[in-house]
Write a structure and sequence with these properties.
Layout: H1 8-18, E1 28-30, E2 35-38, E3 41-45, H2 58-71, H3 86-99, E4 103-107, H4 110-121, E5 127-131, H5 136-145, E6 148-152, H6 157-166, E7 172-177, H7 189-199, E8 202-206, H8 221-224, E9 236-241, E10 251-255, H9 257-266, H10 268-271, H11 278-292, H12 294-313, H13 320-325, E11 328-329, E12 336-342, H14 344-356, E13 359-360, E14 363-364, E15 374-379, H15 386-402
Parallel strand pairs: 3-13, 5-6, 5-7, 7-8, 8-9
Antiparallel strand pairs: 1-2, 2-3, 4-10, 9-10, 11-12, 12-15, 14-15
Amino acid sequence: MTVSWLNEFDERLSALDVQALRRRRREVVPEQNARLNVDGESLLAFCSNDYLGLSQAPALREAVHAAVERYGVGSGASPMVSGHSVANAALERELAEAVGLPRALYFYAGYATNASAVPALVGEGDALFSDALNHACLIDGARLSKATVHRYRHADLQQLDALLAASPARRKLVISDAVFSMDGDVADIAGLHALCERHDALLLLDDAHGFGVLGPQGRGALAAAGFTGAEASPRVLYMATLGKALGVAGAFVAGPERLVEWLLQKTRSYTYATAAPALLAEAVRASLRCVLGADGEHRRQQLQARIMQLRDGLAPGADAAVDAAGWTLMASSTAIQPLVIGDNAAALAVMAVLREQGLWVPAIRPPTVPVGTARLRIALSAAHEPADVDTLLRALRIAARAIGAQGQTARAPLATA
């Protein structure tokens, strides 16, 4: 009897277990502030991308309740048919104004936006240039495009310059995260733009982790770099998600009128997907008002204070046990604070020690990060109180004493330290 290849999946799953790479979901219910009920246990969470703590804000709840009364629940169809509600249209106008660009297009999900927008911009015979640490959605979009993909070393603009210069392609697209999701560093947007100008390339920026947090009034990394309003560039497309600092769901792409119109016509995840419900658009509109107002500024100040508190607490010399463990807090001024442990099993062990003390801090392992750089991805929020960060620091010191250097293995050099 022939053994089906489907039986191999048991062995493949076992191999994931051996490498400490199997992932599992938890069932969660939000609680007050930065706490989550996880599988029935109340935990202090440092895992959410809700950087401003807006996902549970009363203003957003009220907007959703009012929208349900007016629009119901589902959108019913693609935006190209009957799903483009007046709420969605209003949101697009307000997003474009917020980021200082001529036009915006609202999508139901961030991953689908990039995975489909990239193939709409370039195709076979074109050239695409991708930062080595770009998010998976940009990588998948590059693969789907069938363009010739050139992968440059993380943040290495000199190599990118050489690759652009050597490419004979007429159409060139550079794609990059604005804030890198696992390292927390910010791209050199001015440098990327200068290279695109020099080589007649288009730049697509994914600011999933910067919009709402960076720049004047939280208008994002592109605004922080000065490429909006009167200084907006005709060769930049700006993408950002609405489920992180904005606390809701979805994404948008903003930029020159003709490029956004092209995406509306050719992006398959827009044309062939059911539109985001109006209730979500109304929630985002309420969130955007918070972000751009005094409340948003207060939340950003709170977040920045927690970032500095954590970095001071993990600075070299702050604790002997943490120093001896050999862990590396990567250079980041954003809400993403990666603490590199190194070995997969050791990272899981540290996570488990923290869980025993009532904290949820996720261990991130390959292929999400390079082999040998498994880490705790500490995500800070304006919802965290000073006492919450103090609790985390104490728990990390306990973990360092419990596991420490004995859990270390040789690891590859870090791109940033």
